[in-house]
Amino acid sequence: KMTQQMRDLQLAQARKPPGPSSPNAAKRLYRNLSGKFRVNYTSFDEGSLAGRGEKEKLRKSYLFQSNAALFEAVELQDLDRVQELLKHYSPEELDLNTPNSEGLLPLDVAIMTNNTPIARALLQAGAKESPHFISLESRSLHLSTLVREAEQRVNELTAQVVNEAPNADCSEKEKQLKAWEWRYRLYKRMKAGFEHARVPDPPTNVHLSVASSSSVQVTFWEPLSVNSAVVTKYKVEWSCSPTFSPPLGEAVVDKLKSLHFTIRGLASGTAYYVQVSAYNMKGWGPPQASVPPFAIPSNWREYDGRAPRRRGQAEALDHLLGQVKTVHQHCVCHEPCKNQPQSRKHSVSKSLKHLFHPGSKFLKTLKRGLYLTAIFYKDDNILVTHEDQIPVVEIDDTYSCLLMQDFLWFTKVSCMWDEILWLRQCVTVSQSSCSCILQTRFKMLLAISQMQGLLGIQDLGQVFFEPIKDKQGNILIVTLKEVKTNQTFESVRWVPISKLQTSRKSVSSPEEPSALDTLLTSVQDKLAYHQRSSHALSPGLYLGYLKLCSAVDQIRVLVPEQLPNILCHVKIRSNPNISREEWEWLQKMASMDEPVPAEPEAEVSQIHLFQELQVAIKELMTLVNIPLQEAKDFRLYSQEVLDFGGQVSFLLLLPPSDDVCTAPGQNNPYTPRSGFLTLPLQIFELGEKR
Predict the structure, then answer these.
(1) Longest dimension (CA), the chain
(2) Where would you find the membrane-spanning parts of this chain (predicted)?
(3) Concatenated DSSP letters of 352-397
């Protein structure tokens, strides 16, 4: 039956127009001569993948057959070529899972020649085994057929070469003979590899953990010995019985980039047993039970029935804002602004190409006062005015009020860029009767509207965590926004940051730089901060360190420079969930005057969490430069687990009560190493929400 399938494929492929022979035809002549191959092979040298233009040319050319190229690379055991092809071409372009005329796939050749590196590369790209091999007997029979036919062809060509007189035809026969001799040896090696292989050993380090109140997660490693055959998939089985009788379910894991599986839809409070087995071309190996042997789906909130802290908060705030807007719709303070919507519509409709017309009100120089600047950047370029200036508008030229409170209020307004007009209407009052603070904030709203109108966009981005001041009395509030679209604009130039920095003529001395000069010299640092503050943590459970320091007008929090929107932290594990049993153990530990190690009779999950915490605390103490012996005075925050979107959760490590917040003038005995900064608490809270 298998041989008949091969012949049908040969007939189908024979209808294809032939292509010219390969430059490497001496190596692979059998592809042109056997009649068993789907396409003529076109080879290319190592430099063919170097340039994009050349690669695209080869892609479009009929001479380039990617599937044949991949087969040759696998059969010649050329790992570099295989990786290069997988990098530059998709599985569809390579026909990765389409059998050739011999019923083989690239992965079949790799695993039957026991080429583990190539097999792993193919598996990670999504390669499968041939569907023709439905049993061990069918694979063995097919390999025997390939060996026998190749041997027969070698014998025929040998007889012809021996009996014919030397001529051009004889030389061609000798090339064919060499090609078939090479193929005969390949098939024999594949057949021997299959015959000597055995089923794989059980997977190692099979660890079971509670993923939620309705799921468990199992992670595992490859078997220590694969018995001369590459593992191509794994099977996860689960049951409520330790004997797995009856089984409740099973799943096959064939995406091997990460060896884990989450079993969902389970009943909370029920114990589930899990085991994992590995598969190679000889079949399924014996299963390996997990450690611990069972897990009970649960979540730490079940310990006291606590609801999520933020449940319904966003909806409640939206509802409250809607009510406030409704109340203010007919407010007297809106009368001066009744004609505003038309001008707002006009400003919103403007595009960035109208950024800087001659009548714009962007400032070239600063005088004593409070200003707003918006930095838009793309890669290493920055958007500037027609005069090659960063966009700056004036907020208040007589500013003398307390800056920090106004600045923190401005950062909150940055969460409502689309509501600036409405906020202006609400704050519009007689300036002769309002306070200095209210006047300043109204002027801030006016400056924001002016910047939005001149730029033609509403979203001005994220506020930098501190304003820039100079000795001339200027204060500069900076917003940052990355432009990710590949737009081109008329009358507006994207200028390389380095060019802007070198071409600008400073109007201040190096000893007393102006706020604008300070901005230009530090713009890369600010862009780096903006990019890092938008990074997200990978899923998992983390241990965070809470350290505050207070000043007269603010409280600041210690954060890492590389991730300023998150507390100083180390990762405990990849599973973010804390189970009810683990949380119960943590509560017990928190109530003790002298914490002790997990007892021997404690559950495996509790012992494992204790060991993970020990490692994480040591790592965190080193990170923030605190002597390890001081850790005995630190505490774990035991009121709740901080949950961020369900995929990231935090346990907090707190210093002794007197050291949580360093008071003004108080020396911190343990100064963190470089790589940290302190943010105003309100700025940190906004960054964390972003």
Answers:
(1) 116
(2) none
(3) GGGTT-TT----SS--SEEEEEEEEEETTEEEE-TTS---EEEEET
CA atoms 509, 514, 517, 518: torsion sign: positive
Computed from CA positions of residues 367, 369, 375, 380, in that sequence, does the dihedral angle turn out positive or negative?
A: positive
- Do residues 559 and 672 both lie within one domain? yes
Whether residue 81 lies inside any domain: the answer is: yes
Is pTM beyond 0.85 here?
no
- Measuring CA to CA, which residue among 88, 79, 87 is closest to residue 106? 79
Residue carrying the six token digits 């995406």: 255
The tokens describing 242, both together, are 């330790």
Q: How many residues does the chain have?
A: 690
At residue 648's C-alpha, the angle toward residues 646 and 654, to 5°, is: 125
What are 38-52's pLDDT values in tens digits? 333 333 344 444 555
Residues 517/392, Cβ–Cβ less than 8 Å: no
Calculate ∠ Cα 393-394-400, nearest 5°.
Answer: 150
Structure token digits, residue 492: 């507006």
pLDDT attached to residue 106: 92
Task: Give the number of domains in the chain.
Answer: 4
Domain contains 334: no
- 3-class state of residue 22 by DSSP: coil
More confident residue, 498 or 651: 651
**DSSP track, 99-128:** --TTS--HHHHHHHTT-HHHHHHHHHTT--
Give the Cα separation of 533 and 562 in Å (integer).
Answer: 8
In degrees and rounded to multiples of 5, residue 156 shows phi and psi of -65, -45
Question: What pLDDT band is residue 423 in, cutting at 50, 70 and 90?
Answer: confident
pLDDT of 168 reads 63
Q: Do 374 and 438 sit in the same domain of this protein? A: yes
Q: Which two tokens stand for residue 323?
A: 């009510």
The SS3 call for residue 57 is helix
**Element spanning 545, H or E:** strand 540-545
Domain membership of residue 275 (yes or no) is: yes
Residue 188 and residue 223 in one domain: no
> How many C-beta atoms surround the C-beta of residue 80 within 10 A?
9
Residue 78 placed within a domain: yes
Are residues 115 and 179 both part of a single domain? Answer: yes
CB atoms < 10 A from the CB of 456, how many? 16
The residues, ordered by sequence, that sit 6+ positions from 6 with a Cβ below 8 Å of its Cβ are 36, 101, 102, 103
The 3-state DSSP class for residue 293 equals strand
CB neighbour class for 445 (10 Å; exposed up to 12, middle 13-18, buried from 19)? buried
Rounded Cα–Cα distance for residues 210 and 22 (Å): 57
Residue span of the structural domain in which 505 resides = 369-527
